[in-house]
Design goal:
Elements: H1 4-70, E1 114-117, E2 123-127, E3 143-144, E4 156-158
Antiparallel strand pairs: 1-2, 2-4, 3-4
Length: 164
């Protein structure tokens, strides 16, 4: 004959296993909801960080262009013909370096910057070639842009807009 105490204990044990299963399911669902809210926030933060890196690098290039054009003989201010001219300037005998390397554009994820040419054919500014929409609403320092800015490529980092 079966002991009734053993039978009640087995039922209680099965009930506890079912309860643990539901608690685990609830915890997984809660984790999924939290993850669903966190991922877009993380993506936005990463976009903002890439944008900040691009701004810094473009401003560095604009400063280097300005420094290159200010170094001249007899008041002759020439702009670089390529970004590589900023890496090694041998116009006046010695070697001057305005940049160590061509900076990475974190937004377009390339080393290929859009170049803005002046009347002399030299480079007067740069822009990202990304067609993504900017995260920031306000224009960064040193940016010349049209009234309506839709893409990062609308932000022109001009050497003339950099203060001395």
């Amino acid at each position: 004959m079966a002991n009734p105490m053993q039978h009640g204990s087995a039922l209680r044990h099965q009930h506890q296993r079912g309860f643990t299963y539901w608690v685990l399911l609830f915890a997984i669902a809660l984790f999924g909801i939290a993850l669903g809210a966190f991922v877009p926030m993380l993506a936005q933060t990463l976009r903002f960080e890439r944008e900040a890196q691009m701004i810094e690098q473009a401003q560095n290039i604009a400063c280097a262009i300005r420094a290159y054009s200010l170094v001249g003989q007899g008041g002759l201010h020439l702009n670089p013909q390529s970004l590589e001219d900023l890496l090694e300037d041998r116009r006046f005998g010695g070697t001057r370096r305005y940049l160590r390397e061509i900076p990475w554009d974190a937004v377009s994820r390339s080393y290929n910057w859009g170049l803005i040419h002046g009347d002399d054919g030299g480079i007067t500014g740069v822009y990202s070639q990304s067609l993504s929409s900017p995260v920031r609403q306000n224009l960064p320092v040193g940016v010349v842009a049209a009234d309506k800015v839709e893409h990062y490529s609308d932000w022109h980092f001009m050497a003339s807009a950099i203060s001395q």
